[in-house]
């Protein structure tokens, strides 16, 4: 646990063409402030002071999180899909991925190309399941006059999702491996940002209304280990 008198940890500042400040905490506990080009040191200090409690909670949570689960891309290995294991069946041939019940048949001309085939299969599934989840929850927000955000699936290291003011809902590809309850929590969270941009009491009240058990789901999504894909031969990370 971190001490009560929590001093801000070291952080880096990255300046980009953006309009607002953002705080990111990476899986290795690295902290980064993303700032507009013109933000002053005083702006950044004030921003960090306002997020001290959140940062402390986030770092505690990360310290409690188990280390990454290293999965080999190998014949017979089990890889999660929507929280359930799929057994990989590998072959050489044209690039293809076909699921039959709880088995996933992957083929590629060479073993080095298999990770890309697996990731593009996950990505295609993600678009299908994530869109369906957005559709299921969107009518409430449509009735309140919001436009449906456009889905983008991304590999993100520091967050599960985000909602941009330009009308995109960005969801982490890694959600396709987690139980559907986690996906639903993140989708509802991001959609609630259509109504409330911050995480204040009104945001929480809306979450309570849309997904009463969201706190338990948040615990689950943040306690599950990250997954690293490693090559069967070298044990090196490949995706
Ligand atoms: Zn949020």
TrEMBL record:
Where do the YgjP-like metallopeptidase domain residues begin and end? Answer: 19-219
InterPro entries with a match to the protein in the record: UTP_pyrophosphatase-like, YgjP-like_metallopeptidase
> Where are its TM segments located?
none
Q: Any coiled-coil ranges, and where? A: none
Highest rank taxon of the organism: Bacteria
Name by which UniProt lists this protein = M48 family metallopeptidase
Q: What organism, scientifically named, is this protein from? A: Alcanivorax quisquiliarum
State the organism's lineage: Bacteria, Pseudomonadati, Pseudomonadota, Gammaproteobacteria, Oceanospirillales
């Amino acid at each position: 646990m971190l001490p009560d008198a929590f001093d801000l940890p070291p952080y880096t500042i990255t300046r980009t063409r953006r309009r607002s400040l953002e705080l990111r905490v990476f899986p290795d506990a690295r902290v980064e402030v993303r700032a507009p080009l013109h933000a002053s040191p005083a702006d950044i200090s004030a921003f960090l002071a306002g997020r001290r409690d959140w940062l402390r909670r986030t770092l505690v949570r990360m310290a409690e999180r188990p280390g990454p689960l290293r999965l080999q891309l190998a014949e017979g290995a089990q890889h999660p899909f929507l929280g359930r294991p799929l057994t990989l069946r590998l072959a050489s041939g044209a690039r293809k991925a076909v699921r039959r019940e709880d088995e996933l048949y992957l083929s590629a001309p060479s073993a080095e190309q298999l990770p890309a085939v697996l990731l593009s299969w996950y990505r295609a599934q993600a678009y299908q399941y994530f869109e369906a989840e957005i559709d299921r929850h969107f009518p409430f927000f449509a009735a309140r006059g919001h436009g449906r955000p456009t889905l983008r699936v991304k590999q993100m290291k520091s967050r599960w999702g985000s909602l941009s003011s330009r009308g995109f809902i960005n969801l982490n590809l890694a959600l396709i491996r987690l139980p559907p309850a986690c996906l639903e929590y993140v989708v509802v969270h991001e959609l609630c940002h259509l109504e409330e941009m911050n995480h204040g009491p009104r945001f929480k009240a809306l979450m309570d209304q849309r997904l009463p058990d969201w706190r338990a789901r948040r615990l689950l999504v943040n306690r599950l280990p990250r997954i690293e894909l490693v090559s069967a031969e070298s044990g090196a990370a490949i995706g």
